[in-house]
What we know:
The chain is mainly alpha-helical.
Amino acid sequence: MEPSKKPSQKRAEYDKVGKYKYILRRFNEVHEDIKALIITQRYMIKGLEHEFLFDKKYVEDAACKDEFDREILWELRGAGVDGLLPRDISKRLGSRKVTAWKVTQRIRHLNDRLDQLIGQTAAEKRGMNWALTSFMKEAWGSTKEEMEKEEFGS
């Protein structure tokens, strides 16, 4: 009689490389898949851009992180075609903690967030000034009459 052999069991992948490394690798794979989906979504939005109407609320939620960002966009909206200097925006916001540098950084972050989501920017440089892009003007409807209606609730 031959001694009975135990059936060979194959080890799971997480036992071979270690559970922590396995989990990290799986997490990175999922992360890469999500990045690919975001890129695909962005291409779809860019291709169908003429079909979409982005309203003020959607653009604000996509770009603005907090109320400070909304106030910066509000000041840029009233600035007109030429735009405003960051120091002028910081003076209009009225807080001592708000420097021109922080305003510039906030505008750059606004642009980055909006660019990652829909491939557009909120503000652009015009010389040393910052001004709203045509995309933001369309989304916000930035005519002075509309601003007055919004302010007075008419």
